[in-house]
Structures are given as structure tokens and as C-alpha cells.
Amino acid sequence: MDKILVIGSINKDFTINVDKAPLEGETITSSASSYSLGGKGANQAVALARLEAQVDFIGKIGEDNNGYEAIESIQNDGVNMPVILKSQTKDTGIAVIILEKNGKNRIIVNQGVNLNFNDEDFEIVKKLVDNYDYFLIQLEINVEFIKN
């Protein structure tokens, strides 16, 4: 079976369900809310694992509960994480999703540590890349890292 490496973003998503999005200055109530794994990189890795692909994922988290919960979620979905990159100075990325009853949404993202991949991280990843048949990366992490 081909081995796939996904490198990308990890977010903790907070979704709040509403009949309609509030207008400027308006306060409304929500019918439900939930937390879930997010980040295009993490979501792609999980989707591949659910399709029974042999997938490894490398992402970066802050030293916070959101990051550790995201890692647990990713691994529980059958994704191997050969390296977990961490930052002591930036938080794990988060997204707030306002989901309207009609299916429309508004999303606010704080990219956090996703934009903090650095040269040290690159050296770690570079040692692993040759072990894979396919490599998937997206643009939710800093572009300078991707250009390397």
C-alpha cells in the first residue's frame, strides 16, 4: 500500500448554530454549539485514513489543551503522527464557525502556530519525506516553509 504524508494545519473548531447570523451590534441566541477537529491539513489526513489509506500527518500545536485534544482526535481516527511539532510561544489555531439554519456560514480563524513552522521544523520534516510515495500540503501554514 502506498504511504502518504500530509503536512498542514491543525485547528480546534467551535461551531455555533443559529437561525441567522447576527447583524452588527445585535445579540442573538444559539440553538446548539460544538467543538471539533479542524484545519485543512488535519481534515485531509483524517479523510484519507477513513478511506483506509496509510497516512501520516505532521502538524504543529501550541502547548495548550486545544492542541493536545486535536492530536488525540487525529490519532483516534487512525492517522499516525511520526512527529508532533510544538511551540511554546504560539497557541494552537482556532476557528469560530457561525452556522446558519439555511447552511450558510461565516468563519473566523486565528491561525496561531500554523503560521509558525520554522527552519528547525523543516529540517525534521526533510528527514522523513523520502519515506513516502505521496506528499500533500496546503496553504494554511506559512508559505516560506512550503517554499523550502
Describe, in plain words, how this protein is organized in 3D:
The protein contains four helices and nine strands. It has helices at residues 40-50, 65-76, 119-126, 143-147, and strands at 3-7, 11-18, 32-38, 54-58, 60-62, 85-87, 93-100, 105-110, 134-137. Helix 2 (65-76) links the parallel strand 5 (60-62) and strand 6. It is globular, with a radius of gyration of 17 Å.
Rg from C-alpha positions? 17 Å
Number of helices: 4
Query: How many angstroms separate the termini?
Result: 28 Å
Helical/strand content category: alpha/beta
Report on the biggest sheet.
4 strands, mixed
Strand line-up in the sheet with most strands: 3-2-7-8
N-to-C series of helices and strands? EEEHEEHEEEHEH
Q: Using DSSP, what is the number of strands?
A: 9
| Mean of all residue-level pLDDT scores | 94
Into which percentage range does the β-strand content fall?
A: 25-35%
Stretches where pLDDT falls below 50 for ≥5 residues?
none
